[in-house]
Amino acid sequence: MAASFSPLLLLAVPASVVLGAGGGLALAASLARLPGVASEGRLGTVSSAFYAVAYIGFGFPLLLAALSESVPTAALLAALAALCGVLALQQARVSVP
């Protein structure tokens, strides 16, 4: 008996590799930027705050999955995209060394 695989499974495996690599690169790049952002003697505090926010963000997909049972997924993703756009515009105005 041959096992059957969903075509979505064949897409999910490479997508998870790409998304995992992207997330890892973003985390590493963000951590590398922290010494330039933190004031003298505050790198530990800034790093711990960064990790706290990052771990909250890691749980965000679970929150989206839970909310998608009552709110359409397209609406959730549109709201998230709008929030990201607003934050990107706000950060574009801030000059970070």
Structure report:
This protein has helices at 7-37, 43-58, 60-67, 73-93. It is built from four helices and no strands. The model has no long low-confidence stretch (mean pLDDT 88). The N and C termini lie far apart (61 Å).
Q: Any descriptors?
A:
97 residues, 4 helices, extended
Would you kindly provide a brief summary of this structure?
With 97 residues, the chain is mainly alpha-helical. It has helices spanning 7-37, 43-58, 60-67, 73-93.
Please estimate the helix content: over 70%
Count of alpha and pi helical runs: 4
Poorly predicted ranges? none
Structural class: mainly alpha
Q: Element order, helices and strands? A: HHHH
Write the layout of secondary structure elements.
Elements: H1 7-37, H2 43-58, H3 60-67, H4 73-93
Helix pairs in contact: 1-2
